[in-house]
Amino acid sequence: MMMMAAPAADTTMRAAPAADTTMRRTLQDLGLHDIYATLAAEEIDDSVFCDLQDGDLKELSISRGNRRKILTAIAALKARERGGWHPPPPPPPLSLSLVRAPSVVTPPRSPPRPVEAADAECSICMDASVEVRIVGCGHTMCSSCASDWFARTPAGQQTECPTCRGPCADFEPLRRAPPVPPVPPVPPVEPAVEPATTRVYVGSIPCSMTKLQLAGLFEGVGLVVDAWISKDAKGRSTTMGMVEFSEPAAAAKAVRARHNKRPYPKGKRLKVALWNKRPPNRRDSFGSRERSAELEELRARVEAAERRAEAAEAARVRAGVAASELTALRGRNELRARAEAAEAASAAATARAAEQERRAARAEANEAAATAALARTRINADLVQKTKELTKAARPNAKLRAENRRLLEQMTGVPTLDPGVSAYVPGVPVLASPTCWVRCAICRKDADPFTAFSGAELANGAARRCKRCLPGQ
Hints:
Blueprint: H1 2-5, H2 9-15, H3 21-29, H4 33-41, H5 46-49, H6 54-59, H7 64-83, H8 94-99, E1 132-134, E2 140-141, H9 143-152, E3 159-160, E4 167-168, E5 171-173, E6 198-203, H10 211-216, E7 224-231, E8 237-245, H11 248-258, E9 271-274, H12 289-393, H13 398-410, E10 438-439, E11 446-447, H14 455-458
């Protein structure tokens, strides 16, 4: 992150607005031009600069010594604002400062005391190498900072201690304790199970983005083993984060793929750069096995939720298919039942129609049989009556029989009269014996066939006419 911010320091300082004059002047006095560029990139102005805490500066990866310098300068600014103190005029040239460097009043020096652990660093540059002590209050600083501090005081004014703001007149060398042999540093133990990883700094992250979404931005670039988003004391996102990959090539590819790109169509452009490699003895504030395990756990939860959602969707689809099949089966059963009911109704109607036809045929047959029986009864009665009449009126006459025999010999096509036939059947051409009568087809009267009919008329059968009905008679 600092490697990208350092080249743009001059440009950022030139483009900074006038509202950042206090922050810019303070950091310039401390010689921290690159840190000013870092703060300006995070949109920190004078209103936010005086409220910065050690944790905020630590999240920006500012070293401990520089943090102490900035916090001391911020405390001085707050004290000046509360006490109505105005900054002194700029220091005089170096030649005049060297001439006026000795103090006008030199109080008696106090006996020196050993340097404590709290005084083991300079209150101006925050360096651990201190050489002098201020006479009066006893605070320590390095010799170069002490010379510069006393040289800034104008002539005729009292110099103030940069730590306690108490009056001071001179400084003296420290009485140091006997040197302690340095303890050889313990080389860091690299875990044997974790592969070498490469980290990428990500800036201008949307405030609503989560760690899992931050890791998802680099999907397809490489294997993400850890992701982290910086938060302030109130738990709000500071729009800065880190993503750790399993291979250096993946980190370089992520920088090329995502730098100066928008995560959303209307979002701010991301700032992606390789993370600076820090000294091995410095505490690593980003990336840990716990966070890696947390990220893996989040991924496992998301995958489990996706699997549950897929299973639920599959179950819903199966339930829908089963419901459709059941509905179709019910429809088929209903249609089958309707068809069976229609067939049963048709069979019943057919059976009823057949029964009615059978009854009608039986009634017609009974009526025909009754009509035939009645006709036979009437015919028999007529025949009996006529037979009786003919029997009474018939007289044996040999002459008539001879004449009849002669006529029969002359007639052709007329059947021979059976002497035993005594009944008359209408429509049958027969020669009646003296005991038979023949009915005329015109007057419908029965007469003697030998006297009332001619031989030609007797041959006409049912169309025979008696002599009285012949034309011309």
